[in-house]
Specification:
Shape: flat
Number of strands: 0
C-alpha cells in the first residue's frame, strides 16, 4: 500500500505569511543558477522517466570508481530477492 502523500506533505504557506515570503525568496535566489552546470544537474535529476533513471544507473555502474560498490549493491539486492 502506498503512503498518503497528502498526509506527508504540509499544506502550502498562507498568502501574506512569513513562510510564503521565505519560499518566494528561495525561489528567486535560484534564478541566478540558470544556465549553470548545477542547474542542468538539478533539471536532469528531476527527470523521472524510466529510461533516464536506468541510463544514469548503468552509467554509474560502469564508472571505475563505482564498480566495487555497485557490485556489492547488486549482490545485496539480489540476495534479498531470493
Amino acid at each position: 500500500m502506498l503512503p498518503d502523500s497528502l498526509a506527508l506533505i504540509p499544506p502550502p504557506p498562507l498568502a501574506g505569511s512569513t513562510a510564503l515570503a521565505d519560499d518566494q525568496e528561495v525561489a528567486r535566489s535560484t534564478f541566478r543558477l540558470r544556465d549553470t552546470p548545477r542547474f542542468a544537474l538539478a533539471a536532469s535529476d528531476y527527470d523521472l522517466k524510466l529510461t533516464h533513471l536506468t541510463s544514469d544507473f548503468f552509467l554509474r555502474a560502469q564508472h571505475p570508481d563505482h564498480q566495487r560498490g555497485f557490485s556489492l549493491s547488486v549482490h545485496v539486492a539480489v540476495s534479498r530477492l531470493q
